[in-house]
Amino acid sequence: AQRVTQPEKLLSVFKGAPVELKCNYSYSGSPELFWYVQYSRQRLQLLLRHISRESIKGFTADLNKGETSFHLKKPFAQEEDSAMYYCALKWNYQLIWGAGTKLIIKP
Amino acid sequence: DVKVTQSSRYLVKRTGEKVFLECVQDMDHENMFWYRQDPGLGLRLIYFSYDVKMKEKGDIPEGYSVSREKKERFSLILESASTNQTSMYLCASTPGSQVNYGYTFGSGTRLTVV
Fold it and tell me: Which chain A residue shows the shortest CA-CA distance from B5?
């Protein structure tokens, strides 16, 4: 069955430190994966898609089919990165969501 | 430029009441979704619709129904509200099969059932 796992409910790092938010998926086909972000009191929004191979706000995510992972990384965290992050997998017309990771950047 | 609008930001209802949550999008999207968002559980799909008058059950449809009479509007109905339906409800839309372009979300409705 399709599944997305984000093993960390909470991740706390200091400003300037590297950040890695983990995401693992279970899917038998060719996956399409996304990261969404929700800042405090704002709506949930798309951060990046693996098919775009883009870097948004300094974040990147590489699809590793061997490890079935799509971890989100940023080399130097900033305080404004504090937010809730969700990993999602496309399945038919839907997205399968992970439980989310709350990222806190300490000054 | 708000594109998905949820009619209420906060709602407080009594147990047993019938509750209507409204969602309107102005992007001519075919697909619309209702989720509930709970800490530690992520987003759970309640219902979705891929066309007018069409609806499909999601993962947790019990206690809910939906209505899509017009393309731009997708309503979530709690037939008889219960305290375990206290949650944040999110509406989203996406065009046709282009899920890879991402969902557009509303700002959410925080429902409290007392």
Answer: A43
